[in-house]
Design brief:
This protein is mostly beta strands. It has two domains: about 35-150 and about 265-310, no CATH class; about 160-265 and about 315-320, Immunoglobulin-like (Sandwich), CATH 2.60.40. The chain has three helices and 20 strands. The relative contact order is 0.19.
């Protein structure tokens, strides 16, 4: 039931305590049928894990949250969770020769890890996607919802590591090149190793406000989208805000490493996260399933994306100067 009323005057006038008899309640009826909303990723990389997230859209009679009872490690956990998350789906990924059943693992994930909460993984160690392979996805639920998906694993990206210097000196620039791909987009990114251990809040607020020297190095983290046929980029540390770039002790950098990552992606991944994702952030979010008509990339019978990626990396120590 939804009340059709403009309540601005009631908020402004303290004497407005009752509903006018002329106002009526109106039944809101929707013929929307829930559909599955999936984010699936096949990774041809030993570090990034393949995974599938399964959500569904909600009809207007359903609340957003539901009470969940889980038993993990012999302990019972009762908590509220999003109703749109599907936790009992049958998720199968296949390369045409072998089927791999994905399940939600029984372990506790930190509250701030939104990517892998209620996520389906393959528990074995024989999932080994290769470039050029076509992988399919099948998702069914006890409630009768289902969808399928398909992706072709992109070529392996190849950094020209032999052309990189042995050490990255903070005030120099370096040329980074790679084997160009004719049909696939890539993303190149650079960041320092210690940045993985200090979040942005600690760097910009805690260390700065307290006058302490930050371990999270500013100006290092950068990324760029690489179009097909592009084969090089020049990398240099970006200028930092006042007070950050010139007061660091040169020894601060001696235990840090520069990590250069190059990721290739299939067309589904590119369309979902980059081409159309910049226009509508709803479809780039990992919080899938909260509603909306949605789009589908590599998906049939539902919405979302089923894509694939591959990775290459290079590492070099960082120094203040020669």
């Amino acid at each position: 039931m939804r009340l059709i009323i403009i309540g601005v005057l009631c908020l402004l006038l303290p004497g407005c305590l009752s509903i006018s008899p002329e106002l009526e309640w109106e039944d809101v009826i929707s013929d929307h049928e829930p559909v599955l909303n999936v984010l699936g990723l096949i990774s041809a990389d030993s570090v990034v894990t393949s995974f599938v997230r399964v959500h569904r859209s909600l009809n207007m009679s359903e609340s957003e949250d539901t009470l969940v009872r889980d038993t993990i490690g012999g302990n019972i956990f009762i908590y509220y969770a999003p109703r749109y998350v599907v936790r009992d789906a049958n998720v199968i990924v296949s390369n045409g020769n072998n089927d791999y059943v994905f399940d939600i693992p029984q372990f506790i994930v930190e509250d701030d890890d939104t990517i892998f909460t209620d996520t389906y993984f393959y528990a074995g160690d024989d999932l080994d996607p290769q470039p050029g392979e076509t992988w399919s996805l099948s998702v069914t639920t006890p409630g009768g919802l289902s969808l399928t998906g398909e992706t072709t694993v992109p070529p392996l990206p190849q950094l020209n590591k032999e052309q990189l210097p042995d050490t990255f000196y903070i005030h120099q620039e370096i040329d980074i090149s790679w084997l160009p791909l004719s049909d696939n987009y890539q993303i190149i990114n650079a960041r320092n190793l210690l940045s993985y251990f200090y979040d942005e809040y600690e760097y910009y607020y805690y260390y700065y406000d307290e006058g302490q020297r930050p371990d999270y190095k500013c100006g290092i983290i950068q990324s760029a989208i690489i179009a097909p046929e592009e084969d090089s980029i020049t990398y240099r540390r970006e200028l930092c805000e006042d007070g950050f770039q010139d007061d660091a002790d040169s020894t601060d950098w001696d235990e840090d490493w520069l990590i250069i990552g190059l990721m290739s992606m299939d067309q589904n991944y590119y369309d979902h996260f980059i081409k159309y994702g910049q226009e509508d952030p709803e479809f780039t979010s990992l919080f899938l399933g909260v509603g909306g008509s949605g789009r589908n990339y590599g998906i049939e019978g539902g919405i979302g994306v089923f894509g694939s990626i591959a990775m290459d990396r290079a590492f070099m120590p960082m120094k203040w100067n020669r």
